[in-house]
Amino acid sequence: MSFNCLPAPTWTSNFRDLNSAITRMATLTSGGRITVDVVEEEITRLRDAWQASNTSPLETWCAQVVGPERFAALDLFDRIQLSGVLNVCSQARTLSAAGRTLFSTSRDRKKTVNDADRLRKYLARFALTWEQIHQHDAAGR
Fold it and tell me: pTM of the predicted model, to two decimals?
């Protein structure tokens, strides 16, 4: 029931696909009963299929940087914002340069400007460091 109530993508397939999911669960079960484990496996398979079709390359890369489970647990708002920040960071040569890009307007209203520190603190909210972002970026996205 909790899977049904998630704000995940809605079912865009047809009855045949639903029938396939149920048939898969019935085939994987032993003893004639579909267990919670079998249902959870099917949910994982469905989620993976939905994410593959609904995820941009940037979001896929961000999920790798943050960790797929942690990224999936974020609200859509945080995923969108974090993806944008990580994209800027991956293109910038330094933490300061990324900070200047990200805070270009609000920095004018600050008494002391330390864009690198602001960005470092933002990344720390997601347990990320500048080095982690660039290690993942070097691995190719």
Answer: 0.59
What residue has token string 């993806």? 83
Q: How far apart are CA 95 and CA 120, in angstroms?
A: 8
- Give residue 125's pLDDT band: very low, low, confident or very high (50, 70, 90): very high
Confidence of residue 5 (pLDDT cuts 50, 70, 90): low
CA dist 46 and 49 (Å) reads 5
CB-based contacts of 87, cutoff 8 Å, min separation 6: 58
Burial readout 80-116 (b: 16 or more C-beta within 10 A, e: otherwise): eebbebbbbbbebeebebbbbebbeeeeeeeeeeebb
Q: Which two tokens stand for residue 15?
A: 């009855």
